[in-house]
Amino acid sequence: MTDPKRHNHYIGGEWVAATAYSANINPSDLNDVIGEYAQADAAQVQTAIDAARAAFPAWSTSGIQARSDALDKVGSEILARKEELGTLLAREEGKTLPEAIGEVSRAGNIFKFFAGECLRLSGDYLPSVRPGVHVEVTREALGVVGLITPWNFPIAIPAWKIAPALAYGNCVVFKPADLVPGCAWALAEIISRAGFPAGVFNLVMGSGRVVGDAIVHSPKVDGVSFTGSVGVGRQIAISCVSRQAKVQLEMGGKNPQVILDDADLKQAVELAVQSAFYSTGQRCTASSRLIVTAGIHDKFVEAMAERMRSIKVGHALQAGIDIGPVVSRVQLDQDLGYIDIARNEGARLVAGGSLVTCDTEGYFLAPALFADSTADMRISREEVFGPVANIIKVADYEAALAMANDTEFGLSAGIATTSLKYANHFKRHSQAGMVMVNLPTAGVDYHVPFGGRKGSSYGSREQGRYAQEFYTVVKTSYIGS
């Protein structure tokens, strides 16, 4: 077998080799090596930071049309290559091919959206309370930003961090998840040809302990945007705040999907299946807690079990597959561990929960659904981050709302109901950053804010025009006559 192609870092406008490389393995087929990707050491990370710092003065004051054109070029190429890039994404992360192509399309549209935002920069021109004085309120680029992204959305999340960072005049040091470097490298290669000056965008791949720590602790990095686990996020917050760097965190979720007695049963089942199990449940917005009122509970459990029998698990590139593999052996072991925990705590396994044998060796797991669970079980409290969900029976809407809010997290929450009264009340009183009415909890748009409350998020929102809150700083100027 020939050696897989090696993929290097992109630092200061050049492709830079490393002393070590790591194999990128397809979770649908463990014999499929996608490529070998560079592993940075701390010195290479510092070189990337220095390159970004050197490029910042000119880039942050550059013309907005040039920024817009470069971002639009990136978006156009991503969209033109969506099938190719979608196939790469499906191979390295395990999303089904239609989902993967959809994620790539979203990434392309994000770059195009922020190409437009470059031309919509605005401020305020106000009279002062003092005669003969005027006030200008403007936004300027934050500086050098470190972007640390997770493995579950290997092109969309990098896009929604990189595009606004560049649009508002920042320089970027980008560290993708070590598990899925392929899409990140492909995106960097597109960016490298789009017209950005050397040092404006830098890609450094490798472990969080080396690359992530070097970015987070560098005094030359003005802000860090991180999406990942709660534990790591909290450590990043401590490090950044201690040196007064700006920080933005998107972390965990234990998202509730409420099903009321008056819900359309077929619709409720379908949105619950999509929320809990599609993308193999590996989404921070997935709803792993299905909170169901007593009047519809038994019918819902029966209908869910029936619907889950038709879910097809298999190779991500195979036509007709609903759910691909779990991303890695470590994640599969975690999922299986929580299935055992739920059984031991007394929850009843209604469907799935077993390994699936396919034509290729991979991490295939039938989605697991538990019933007869209670709020104090670990399966109801802790984020599994896999295709594992449990049903909690409650008396009525008021109990359902209280149960939905009974969590340390607050990212996304959903309700299935035909009652306008309950829908409006839930929107107002749900302690989540995003609320879905008769929709899956895991579907979001790229042009509106994304983020949560409580333990799920920290700092300003991501995506849409709200992204400027993190990537810019406000300046107030007074002008006398």
Automatic annotation (TrEMBL):
* Keywords of this entry: Oxidoreductase
Q: Which domain of life is it from?
A: Bacteria
The family database entries (Gene3D superfamilies) matched by this protein are listed as: Aldehyde Dehydrogenase, Chain A, domain 1, Aldehyde Dehydrogenase, Chain A, domain 2
- Residue numbers annotated as active site: 250
Q: Which residues form the Aldehyde dehydrogenase domain?
A: 16-476
**Record-annotated membrane-spanning stretches:** none
Q: Which GO terms describe its molecular function?
A: oxidoreductase activity, acting on the aldehyde or oxo group of donors, NAD or NADP as acceptor
> Of which family is this protein a member?
Belongs to the aldehyde dehydrogenase family.
The protein's name: Aldehyde dehydrogenase family protein
